[in-house]
Write a structure and sequence with these properties.
single chain; mainly alpha
Length: 205
């Protein structure tokens, strides 16, 4: 049986999130708080928020997205780099994607004690966009849309929507984290294989 970091991540995240649903102390300990990072030096909060979610819907949506796109990315990385190096790249994309997703929020809210953020959306976005860059011609199915959308079309449209939503504000969703994670996923792929960027551009133009 081939070890899968993806399955381990989903299992641990689901377990901790489930416990945090009914344990405010655990939730408050792990959530992202730029204020506490700066003033209490709780640097672990840059990444610990990927382990907790606000409810089952939030958790299921993130883990569902992570499973299907993460599985495709993991398989592609295994094929090109072998299992050990492939898992290393996958873990780097996921966890550093989670960290980078919080950078903008940190600088914007570091003096706001009331700002809170939870969920793995930023890390999941990093995986999704790394998969899009690696396999830009794959087809994605979205909720409520019965036709497949090519990844190289979905990616730019998704980023445009997230940017618009971020500027509009008032949704209670950390769209900046989605954008930050997505951009990290793209950048990581370009660093380890610049040819993937060329393939992506060739499909668009």
């Amino acid at each position: 049986m081939v070890f899968s970091a993806l399955i381990v991540i989903i299992a641990i995240t689901s377990l901790i999130s489930y416990n945090a649903f009914n344990d405010d102390r655990l939730l408050n300990k792990l959530l992202f708080s730029a204020y506490q990072i700066k003033h209490d030096r709780e640097y672990y909060r840059f990444i610990s928020n990927v382990l907790v979610h606000v409810d089952f819907t939030h958790l299921l949506f993130n883990m569902f997205s992570l499973y299907f796109l993460g599985q495709a990315l993991e398989s592609a990385l295994f094929s090109d780099y072998g299992q050990q190096v492939g898992e290393f790249h996958f873990l780097m994309i996921y966890f550093f994607g989670g960290v980078m997703a919080n950078i903008y929020g940190y600088f914007r809210h570091q003096n706001n004690p009331y700002y809170r953020s939870v969920g793995a959306s930023g890390a999941v976005s990093a995986v999704i966009f790394a998969a899009i860059m690696w396999m830009p011609d794959m087809e994605l199915f979205l909720f409520l849309i019965p036709i497949p959308i090519p990844a190289f079309i979905f990616g730019p449209l998704y980023l445009a929507f997230e940017y618009w939503s971020h500027k509009r504000g008032g949704s209670g969703v950390a769209h900046d984290a989605h954008i930050g994670g997505a951009l990290f996923g793209v950048l990581y792929v370009l660093i380890i294989n610049i040819d993937k960027g060329k393939e992506f551009l060739n499909l668009i133009f």
